[in-house]
Give the backbone structure.
Amino acid sequence: MSEQHNVVLLTFPDAAAWRPAYDEAQHLPGLRQVAALERSADGLLEVRDSFVRGAGVTTVGSGVLGGLVGLLGGPVGVLLGFAAGAALGNAAEESRATEGGAGLIVLSPRVPDGGALLVVEAREASPGPADELAAKHGATVERIDAHEFAERIKAAERKAEEDAAGPDQD
């Protein structure tokens, strides 16, 4: 079976139930990232926790590559190359984090009052592990194709930009 790149949503009617599932979700096969959203009984939404597999790797890798290129310029070149590479890598990671935040905003209406939502991005060879996790912790599970979800986020961003611009004034 081929891998499916999915956003897997685990919805918990009871907000207290998400933590053990979150801890276990970090070990799901193919996991890229997981975030926990919780809504209080009075409707206040909070991002309670998040985990990104490989966070910082891009920044460090870019810094090392920049340092190696900087070897041509001597010790100062290594320092400047590492700093420039790390800055570029960090910018790439920040861009990904911003996209992730937009995705959580799009999903926020799905969090029930007094409940929680785990948002898991993973490349799944099989739905079994996530389905078993959901069943074990009393959550319902829903999958959205990651590419389709990315399109939804882009559409929501365009709509927000149009709304912020207001009606055209000729």
